[in-house]
């Protein structure tokens, strides 16, 4: 079972972290969502936080579904950031009757063809990891994925989470030692989303200061998914829930109270 915690009572909401973080990225949102009347579940996907690298099967969406089964949550809302958004889309496609609403913040998506910008970032990161310079690779990620509104506390928090993830992923296990770390932008994983339409109320958030890929993904999904709407934040980078946590928390609560509102 992947590491997780549960706070509050009411309709369940599952928070899925970005692939440069772990479940601690949602620290600002958890108490507010619980106070608003939700049972807030957050987890560490394998290779992040307190969840080790996977042994055998590597299927984030199945891990999420199994966790919610364990917690007795038949139906639930999903909030996903970046690579966590890709996992959320996978869950919604494979178990459509279980997901009541989707809020996707700067989401990745399976099969996305990376832009030159994203490929160049990946090449720089790979070179640093190959050289064993996890600190420099961490600094690169913090500089790339947090927008101008992020303060020192958010940057310090992301640095801790990303550095820990690199340590977990590069150490691996006897079954996975030597495997490359998961791509921080959430594009390269063993999982691929099924080719099924996702039809559930969906809020897609993108940031004007983010790598263009994620704004393009949000716009495309808004066109393809019935019941989806796209909001671009002119102040945001890739991790708006860490950059202006109070604003994003209010947005999430408003959406969860009335997912169908335009």
From TrEMBL:
It comes from Mangrovihabitans endophyticus. Residues 173-192 are annotated as: Disordered. Residues 173-190 have a biased composition (Low complexity). The keyword Isomerase does not apply. Gene3D superfamilies: alpha/beta hydrolase. Residues 11-245 form the AB hydrolase-1 domain. InterPro entries: AB_hydrolase_1, AB_hydrolase_fold, Carboxylesterase_BioH, Epox_hydrolase-like. SUPFAM superfamilies: alpha/beta-Hydrolases. This is Alpha/beta hydrolase. One of its GO terms (molecular function) is hydrolase activity. Transmembrane segments: none annotated. Keywords: Hydrolase.
